[in-house]
Design brief:
Blueprint lengths: L1 E5 L5 H14 L7 H13 L4 E7 L2 E11 L7 E9 L8 H15 L5 E2 L7 H10 L13
Parallel strand pairs: 4-5
Antiparallel strand pairs: 1-2, 2-3, 3-4
Keywords: Acyltransferase, Ribonucleoprotein, Ribosomal protein, Transferase
Protein name: Ribosomal protein S18 acetylase RimI
Pfam family, one: Acetyltransf_1
Length: about 140
């Protein structure tokens, strides 16, 4: 059975392993340690950015990162920024449980929706996303600074 919970101080190694694996999926292999240190500090402060982990049989197998932000045309919304589950744990409900936990946290913060992005080629994840959410048809553009 999958349990979703907030980070514990002793989760650092498992969390960082999963976050590095997530970034590697997007060909980001050489991120500086400072990126992970900053993210960990933000997630453990739990003020601006939030993190949850999925645990199966006492082993951390997945993570989700999210933040709540203002909207110009509605009450606050929740952005699910990162979602990752170990390859060997996929297909057993961890990602679905993490998404549901973010939705619960967003409701508790009076958000009107949770949204996230994925690549069109992420077909395995999109099968789940199509079951739990609505594809609103938007394209993402980025302007590097």
């Amino acid at each position: 059975m999958t349990t979703v919970r907030r980070l514990h101080p002793d989760d650092r190694a498992a969390w960082e392993r999963l976050f590095r694996a997530y970034l590697a999926c997007y060909e980001r292999h050489d991120e500086p340690q400072a990126l992970f240190d900053r993210a960990w500090a933000e997630f453990t402060a739990d003020d601006r950015m939030h993190a949850l982990v999925a645990e199966v049989d006492g082993r951390v197998v997945g993570l989700v990162h999210y933040l709540v932000h203002a909207s110009t045309s509605s009450p606050d919304v929740c952005y699910l920024q990162d979602l990752f589950v170990d390859e060997d744990a996929r297909g057993h409900g961890a990602a679905r449980a993490l998404i549901a936990a973010v939705a619960d946290a967003a409701r508790a913060r009076h958000c009107v929706r949770v949204y996230w992005l994925t690549q069109p080629t992420n077909t395995r994840a999109r099968r789940l996303y199509d079951q739990v959410a609505q594809d609103r048809g938007f394209m993402q553009y980025g302007l590097p600074l």
